[in-house]
């Protein structure tokens, strides 16, 4: 009771509350199974009201709740910890904490023993993209920060197997379907946020924010040096991964399997038709970015999915309909420009990544990657023997 009282009272007693929280963490580490539910309920209450009261202990409280979720999930679920974490994920502006909270909820979904009674509803993460009156009193910077946190949360969810199986489940795919359907509405800020989410989710290089297709196509040209090849980024490791062929040619690639499942769910949700709608009804900046995304998506779909899945929602006929419709001249102009850009992008994507670093060449030579074949070695030895013979003669 004394510890609960110390956490509840917020009258310049920060040191007392810190010591109470340290005691709670110590009890949790020593015996997670015997952790008192009363302390968990106090932490849940603090997490539910900490954002409105601007409590400085909110971050530490959320961290302890995430630890309780992992160490004693049954008690965490019974005390209402799931709703507290979901509420703070949707209202948070702290990216690192958002990823931690999503990891705790995905831990509940990953275990069959807690998946059923935890009742985790990750579809609520799509609310910031779908509710246009959500936090309408905030300024533009706060909304962008909120979009960033929600994007990181969705990336954490959709990049994991438990998250994608839950968020994109055929029986309840309302969250994914809502994100795709909102692209049909002329909300430019939301459209830009969703396009950025799709670029990050699929691991595609983002083109520059421009209204010229030439600049955007140059940024996604695979033969040009990429930004992740810089010394401050992946450097030689990232360049070698992009340039060199994979050693395991016959082993299934788990990353590609996950990406294939993600692409198929987006196809089922009608993402390609929604992107075509974005191309012909948005301004030039968003239309350029959506066109590049459509070309990259078509490339990935034809590489990773079987032909039976590629014809579910063909977007190019719909784009050609807009290109041939003279009744709507602005949409026709955007569609014709997009068709020409897609044709150019198709030729660009046929190119292979070209190495651009002397360091990578030195590493390959030192590791034996540049050794000549057996026939070349034999031929070089034969020429050397003949040269010696001519010198003797």
UniProtKB/TrEMBL annotation:
Rapamycin-insensitive companion of mTOR N-terminal domain location: 1-306
Gene Ontology MF terms: protein serine/threonine kinase activator activity
Pfam families recorded: RICTOR_N
One Gene Ontology cellular component: TORC2 complex
SMART domains membership: RICTOR_N
Family: Belongs to the RICTOR family.
Record's protein name: Rapamycin-insensitive companion of mTOR N-terminal domain-containing protein
Lineage per the UniProt record: Eukaryota, Metazoa, Ecdysozoa, Arthropoda, Hexapoda
